[in-house]
Design a protein that fits this description.
Blueprint: H1 2-5, H2 8-23, H3 25-32, H4 38-59, H5 73-94, H6 100-107, H7 110-122, H8 128-145, H9 157-178, H10 187-209, H11 219-244, H12 249-255, H13 258-271, H14 279-294
Helix pairs in contact: 2-11, 2-13, 3-11, 4-10, 4-11, 5-9, 5-10, 6-8, 6-9, 7-9, 7-12, 8-12, 8-14, 10-11, 12-14, 13-14
Length: about 300
């Protein structure tokens, strides 16, 4: 039984936590943004997560885990900037020009870009399972976001879409680069250092661009910020780092296509937003694509 759980089902479990943590967080962030700007929220989110992880490690007598193994800090910080700062920062900015559904569609095209980037960087081959899985997953996402009714020209659509695509490429590149080397730092060292780079960069950006934005520390806002410290950020990025050692960024990203599906469902329950009629069909297509890719993935580099 233990050998079974060292295989792909454990990878599915890690990614399922992310679907809950990241997919459901769309709803809570939408509520929080009524009280502050998006960049300020992200700065508080990542700074608080760094504080929580740092205090937790020190109390557990693991203060040495605050610093990665010699020679890994710089590369790890770059990955943090790509996966966290670039991804969350630019997708937030993109929504100034385009709607959330279009941003989600572009952002979760990440598996395709990760698959393409993996070819020259990791020399990973593209199997027919990966291609079919990616096709099924993106088909489900297109069904969910109703791509046919989207207007792709005029206004700031092209600008917003280009910004969202840049964010997605940053996420894909960071995920692929993470698998480029055999890490000696443990997972908490990796997560802490990546979040440090994200917290510092996001705080600077927020101070420059949103210094005049008011912040209301309502009970709801404080609760959502604290929740983000603990679950979507601290636990979430630990699960993501762990999953990337067990499977490719392409396969992991395809499973995460379930995140917007869960997000739409939770928004319906919490915010009473309309439930997309294609939700179930979309989820089934995404699941089929994800399991097709994950089922025969190698255990990973670590």
């Amino acid at each position: 039984m233990s050998s079974f759980w060292r295989g792909w089902p454990l990878t599915v479990a890690l990614l399922s936590v992310l679907v809950f943590a990241w997919g459901g967080n769309y709803t809570w962030v939408k509520v929080a943004l009524e009280d502050s700007g998006p960049l300020t929220f992200n700065a508080l989110r990542y700074s608080g997560a760094v504080m929580v992880i740092g205090i937790g490690l020190c109390l557990a007598g693991r203060g040495r885990d605050l610093i990665p193994v010699r020679g890994e800090a710089g590369f790890m910080a770059i990955i943090g900037l790509l996966q966290v700062t670039v991804m969350t920062g630019l997708t937030t900015v993109a929504m100034l020009w385009i709607e959330a559904s279009r941003t989600v569609l572009i952002a979760y095209s990440m598996p395709i870009w990760a698959m393409i980037i993996s070819l020259p960087v990791l020399r990973e081959g593209i199997s027919w399972r990966m291609v079919i899985g990616a096709t099924l997953g993106l088909s489900g996402l297109c069904l969910l976001t109703d791509i046919v009714s989207m207007e792709w020209t005029g206004g700031g659509t092209l600008i917003g879409s280009a910004i969202a695509l840049t964010a997605t490429l940053g996420w894909a590149l960071g995920s692929v680069l993470y698998r480029l080397r055999q890490w000696r730092s443990n997972f908490w060292q990796q997560v802490f250092w990546q979040l440090c780079s994200a917290a510092l960069s996001m705080t600077i950006i927020a101070l420059v661009l949103e210094s005049d934005e008011p912040i209301t520390f309502s009970p709801e806002y404080v609760t959502i910020v604290v929740y983000n410290w603990l679950v979507p950020t601290s636990l979430g990025f630990w699960c993501w780092a762990r999953a990337l050692t067990r499977t490719s960024a392409t396969a992991a990203g395809q499973f995460l296509l379930l995140s917007p599906v869960f997000g739409v469902f939770l928004s319906h329950l919490v915010l009473d937003e309309p439930l997309h009629p294609a939700l179930l069909s979309s989820a089934l297509l995404i699941l089929a694509g994800a399991f097709l890719s994950l089922r025969r993935q190698p255990a990973g580099r670590n």
